[in-house]
Amino acid sequence: MLKYLTLIFVCQLVGELFIGSFGLPIPGPVAGLLALLLFLVIRGHVPAELAEVTDGLQRHMQLLYVPAATGVMVYLGLLASHLVAFSLSILVSTIVGIGVTGVVLQLLLKGRRDG
């Protein structure tokens, strides 16, 4: 179990180093998740121990939002002064996200029906 928890942290570190080295505009943990995905694709399956570790992390995921919520409270004045811009960006990104999800779902379902 410790081996796979370490793997998750190593993938995050690899992502941080990769993004830091090339100055790409995506978060390091996202690149780390892609590295983990690549590892799993090469391996061909998700090991049971890794699934157990990730299930444990997901059970306590709400604790990971505490620092973000604290940050929102610290910058509440800034958020209030740009309320319209923040609201529009949240609305547009939500609509785009739902739209992209719908298009991807349609493409996947079309491929399943054709195949």
Automatic annotation (TrEMBL):
GO CC, sorted alphabetically, is: plasma membrane
The transmembrane segments are 22-42, 63-84, 90-109
Q: Is Nucleus given among the entry's keywords? A: no
Is Ubl conjugation set as a keyword in this record? no
Q: Which UniProt keywords apply?
A: Cell membrane, Membrane, Transmembrane, Transmembrane helix
Question: Which top-rank group of organisms is this from?
Answer: Bacteria
Membrane topology per record: Multi-pass membrane protein
One Pfam family hit: LrgA
User: According to its UniProt record, where is this protein located?
Assistant: Cell membrane
Major localisation? membrane
Signal peptide location in the record?
A: none
Protein name, per record = CidA/LrgA family protein
The organism of origin for this protein: Marivivens niveibacter
